[in-house]
Amino acid sequence: MLTVTDLSVSYGLHRALAGVSLKVSPGEIVVMLGANGAGKSSLLRAIGGICEGKASGRIELSGQDLLSQKPDRIVEAGIAFVPEGRGIFGDLTVWENLLLGAYSKRGQRGKDKNLKWVLELFPKLVERKNQVARTMSGGEQQMVAIGRAMMANPEILMLDEPSLGLSPLLCSELFGNLAHIRETGMGVLLVEQNAKQSLAIADRGYLIENGSITGENSAAAMLTNPAVQVAYLGGSTPRAEISQEE
Ligand code: ATP
Fold first, then answer.
1. pLDDT tens profile 108-119
2. Atom 10, ligand 1: residue with shortest CA distance
3. Beta strand pairing status for 14-24 and 2-11?
4. Which of 7, 9, 14, 42 has the most ligand 1 atoms within 8 A of CB, as the residue to mutate?
5. 200-228 pLDDT per residue, tens
6. Nearest CA owner, ligand 1 atom 18
7. Euclidean distance between CA atoms 151 and 149, whole angstroms
8. What is the pTM of this model?
9. CA dist list (Å): 32 to 43, 120, 131, 133, 207
10. How far is Cα 181 from Cα 165, in angstroms, rounded to an integer?
11. Cβ neighbours of residue 199 under 8 Å, at least 6 residues apart?
């Protein structure tokens, strides 16, 4: 289980995250909703060890404290990250990207099983295995990015706005794939603007405002929460107080 406790991140004098705590269990999809600038990317980047700010607090996976560890050590511990903009190697082929995803000792251990699983999940990548990644469409590149992260054999997969720039059809496909990934027992921490589709596949959600968690609930309860509907689902109910865990 990933447990984040009292995590704060500052960029110079600007505090982007203040005392954030959350949990992601194996086989659980957790979505983090928040407006632009709320601190969502800072949160994922701090967990992934690539935040440019100064972080404090505790980030724990299976008993190991990962706060401010190097990114490769975090991957080795079992956290893989698909950053906003995907972070694939554009000049390499699909196949090379996938195999590079398994560079860690941890990735090497599960390589054959994970490759089989990634290709079952994204059969299109088999047809396109020799294609240079940057020549692929946005949706195809997202498959490569997720596949590459899965090749690291993670316990927790983090994705920052994976649906950004995808057509409605590709979005639906993406969220369907994430629901399948959960079946492997992997925990998924997802930052999304697409609240409706992400909550539809998620187990739980958190709301983040100005660097602090302001709400936490089951995804089903969040979908029907009037304040969430107004802020994130295009609803028209007046803003109401968002309940903490019921
Ligand atoms: P968006 O949805 O727009 O990507 P976000 O919720 O992911 O926003 P962050 O990118 O985490 O928010 O940014 C939170 C705050 O921290 C913002 O005020 C942002 O300007 C600031 N910030 C983020 N990265 C840096 C950085 N490298 N240096 C300075 N300030 C930063």
1. 998 999 999 899
2. 41
3. antiparallel
4. 42
5. 999 999 999 999 999 999 999 999 988 88
6. 37
7. 5
8. 0.91
9. 10, 28, 33, 28, 6
10. 21
11. 31, 33, 205, 219, 222, 223
